[in-house]
């Protein structure tokens, strides 16, 4: 089976890539001037405690053992139980810290990405199939503007208009301090807080999807097989849905796979503007505090999501386009 | 009987620099059981003419004026819905199949089935059977119905394209450059197929290759710069060409059986259709040029019965 072989080959590449990322993450922190010890010692009160820390993080072991340990543990997702992945700052397992923030980020970026994709794909397809029409020109110029303005600016404007002036939505935060504790009540409270940050991200992101989809459609609509389809007497709807969109699925899969894998990384600026306690803010704080174990795990998880997204896209390619399997 | 009558067809492409007159006032007829050849250099308006017959001129082109009567009905006056019923059912077009004319992500059989089922109410299974038969009839193994276009050779794709064009038993088949980009042996096979197809259906064959036209067509129209400059039977055109351009074309073409002689190219380049030469469009390149040619529009002169040439001096030179 060529399909099975194709998938096997892609899996192999994916594994190699993940191993490379895991090793790179080790050397990255080793290469920072001063190394981990310098940053650890800020929390240390006595020489005996420093020795304890060194043993705890395994920094007394030879380099190659540390290297093998780190690569093995990240690659096998062993940081869940491994003490080496304890935050320098909070002295709690990194995984716990991430688990507390990940739902916030997933809720924010997941919602924004899905909405952004739907708007971008639908409007982009329509604009591309009617190139030069009023609709096309309007959406094109709008999306060029919205994707060019920075998110912090969009965020601040939304906060000023809808939060401060109209007082419709909260100015920031994930939920109120006195939010209801039952699941539905709490979710509704979070959703209410999420409206403005989600809107910010949607406004910023949909333009890219729209422009990509539009140019893909424009390219396809000039292909010979579109002329053939029209000559066969198909309606314009059938031409677009059966012939154009079917050929647009490959770029579409890429857009979706990469956007969805991006939702794990958080949105640093939007989360900061709206004080949304998610992965983005956490990553920024970890970098500021030189919290190596946290950064190591976060970098690996973000890379992992992206690589798996790409792998999924590759597999989808093969299923959708007969030419890829060769 | 005339299946297709084209009268005064004009197709212009509107560009920022002005109108490009790709097809400018041409008239011809295609008869039942007959093959009509349209020949000319690249860019003379052959393919534009073919697309105009199906009202598929791409933007920014448009049919400015003219009648295209198919079985007596003017398709230029039809609504879009009526026109869709005419496409492929009454008039179909075999595009250059070796290129991208088949959708790369659908099977060959699936695309033929689509053509059948767009116009006829038959089950998928029945339509697929017919697709296999059609492929067989053009000498392509029916097993290829389940294959994708990239899995077929150029010659196979071209035959499959012809079989798809025949799927709904059209009254008129337009074949656009059916042998271009194929090697000589495959060309010969496709030509043989075209001859066989021609016995069943009225055909318009578009080609820049005069040998292909002479091989198949009963009557020939020679196009130059958006105009038909000569029209007649193959015999007339190839043995007694009346227009200087046709003569130039023929002497630029090698003959395998005839004596060895130097081929003569037509001097100059095809004109810019944005600002075509005044009066006779061929006059800047014409070896028989006289003053009248650049000032007075040439008339269609009937040099012999049913043999016309668009030249002031047709029959005299």
- Examine the secondary-structure arrangement and name the CATH architecture of the largest domain in chain A: Orthogonal Bundle
Q: Structural class, from secondary structure content of chain B?
A: alpha/beta
* Oligomer kind: heterodimer
Mean pLDDT metric of chain A: 88
CATH topology of the largest domain in chain A: MetI-like fold
Rg of chain B computed from alpha carbons, rounded to a whole number of angstroms? 20 Å
- The unreliable regions of chain A are none
| Helix percentage range of chain A | over 70%
Please, what is the CATH homologous superfamily of the largest domain in chain A? MetI-like
The rounded distance between the terminal residues' Cα atoms of chain A is 11 Å
Instruction: Write down the overall geometry of chain B.
Output: globular
How would you spell out the order of helices and strands of chain A? HHHHHHHHHHHHH
Describe this structure in words.
The complex is a heterodimer of chains A (326) and B (317). Chain A folds into two domains: 2-80; 100-288, MetI-like (MetI-like fold). Helices cover 74% and strands 0% of the residues of chain A. Chain A is built from 13 helices and no strands. The two termini of chain B are 33 Å apart. Chain B has helices spanning 46-53, 80-86, 108-119, 124-137, 154-165, 184-198, 210-216, 234-239, 244-251; strands at residues 2-15, 18-31, 35-39, 61-70, 73-74, 91-94, 172-176, 202-207, 219-224, 227-233, 300-304, 307-310. Chain B has a domain at 246-317. Helix content of chain B is 28%, strand content 26%.
């Amino acid at each position: 089976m060529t399909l099975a072989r194709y998938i096997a080959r892609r899996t192999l590449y994916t594994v190699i890539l993940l191993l490379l990322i895991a090793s790179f993450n080790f050397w990255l922190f080793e290469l920072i001037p001063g190394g981990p010890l310098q940053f650890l010692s800020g929390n240390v009160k006595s020489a005996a405690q420093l020795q304890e820390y060194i043993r705890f993080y395994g920094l007394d072991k030879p380099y190659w053992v540390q290297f093998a340990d780190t690569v093995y543990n990240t690659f096998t997702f062993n940081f869940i139980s491994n003490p080496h992945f304890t935050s320098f700052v909070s002295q709690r397992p990194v995984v716990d810290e991430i688990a507390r923030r990940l739902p916030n980020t997933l809720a924010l970026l997941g919602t924004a990405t899905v909405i952004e994709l739907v708007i971008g794909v639908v409007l982009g397809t329509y604009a591309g199939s009617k190139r030069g029409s009023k609709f096309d020109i309007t959406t094109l110029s709008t999306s060029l503007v919205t994707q060019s303005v920075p998110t912090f600016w969009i965020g601040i404007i939304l906060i000023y208009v809808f939060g401060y002036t109209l007082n419709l939505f909260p100015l920031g935060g994930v939920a109120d301090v006195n939010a209801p504790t039952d699941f539905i009540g709490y979710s509704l409270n979070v959703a209410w807080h999420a409206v403005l940050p989600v809107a910010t991200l949607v406004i910023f992101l949909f333009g890219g999807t729209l422009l990509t989809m539009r140019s893909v459609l424009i390219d396809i609509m000039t292909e010979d097989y579109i002329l053939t389809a029209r000559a066969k007497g198909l309606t314009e709807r059938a031409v677009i849905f059966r012939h154009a969109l079917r050929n647009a699925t490959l770029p579409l899969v890429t857009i979706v796979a990469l956007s969805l894998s991006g939702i794990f990384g958080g949105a640093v600026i939007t989360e900061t503007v709206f004080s949304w306690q998610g992965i983005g803010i956490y990553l920024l704080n970890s970098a500021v505090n030189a919290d190596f174990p946290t950064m190591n795990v976060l970098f690996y998880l973000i890379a992992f999501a992206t690589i798996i997204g790409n792998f999924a896209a590759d597999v989808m390619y093969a299923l959708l386009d007969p030419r890829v399997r060769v | 009987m005339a299946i297709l009558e084209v009268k005064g067809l004009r197709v212009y492409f509107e560009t920022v620099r002005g109108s490009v007159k790709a097809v400018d006032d041409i008239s011809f007829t295609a008869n039942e059981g007959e093959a009509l050849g349209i020949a000319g250099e690249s860019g003379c308006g052959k393919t534009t003419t073919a697309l105009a017959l199906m009202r598929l001129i791409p933007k920014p082109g448009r049919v400015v004026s003219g009648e295209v009567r198919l079985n007596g009905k003017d398709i230029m006056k039809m609504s879009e819905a009526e026109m869709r019923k005419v496409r492929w059912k009454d008039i179909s077009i075999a595009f250059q199949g070796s290129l991208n004319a088949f959708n790369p992500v659908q099977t060959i059989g699936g695309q033929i089935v689509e053509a059948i089922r767009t116009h006829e109410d038959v089950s998928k299974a029945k339509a697929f059977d017919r697709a296999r038969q059609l492929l067989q009839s053009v000498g392509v193994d029916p097993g290829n119905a389940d294959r994708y276009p990239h899995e077929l050779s150029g010659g196979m794709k071209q035959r499959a394209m012809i079989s798809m064009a025949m799927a709904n038993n059209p009254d008129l088949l337009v074949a656009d450059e059916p042998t271009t980009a194929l090697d000589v042996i495959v060309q010969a096979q496709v030509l043989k197929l075209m001859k066989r197809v021609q016995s069943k259906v009225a055909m318009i064959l578009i080609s820049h290759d005069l040998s292909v036209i002479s091989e198949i067509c009963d009557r020939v129209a020679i196009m130059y710069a958006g105009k038909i400059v000569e029209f007649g039977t193959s015999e007339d055109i190839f043995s007694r060409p009346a227009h200087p351009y046709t003569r130039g074309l023929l002497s630029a073409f090698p003959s395998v059986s005839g004596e060895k002689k130097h081929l003569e190219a037509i001097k100059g380049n095809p004109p810019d259709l944005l600002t075509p030469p005044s009066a006779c469009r061929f006059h800047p390149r014409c070896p028989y040029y006289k003053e009248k040619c650049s000032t007075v529009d040439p008339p269609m002169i009937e040099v012999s019965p049913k043999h016309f040439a668009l030249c002031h001096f047709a029959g005299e030179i």
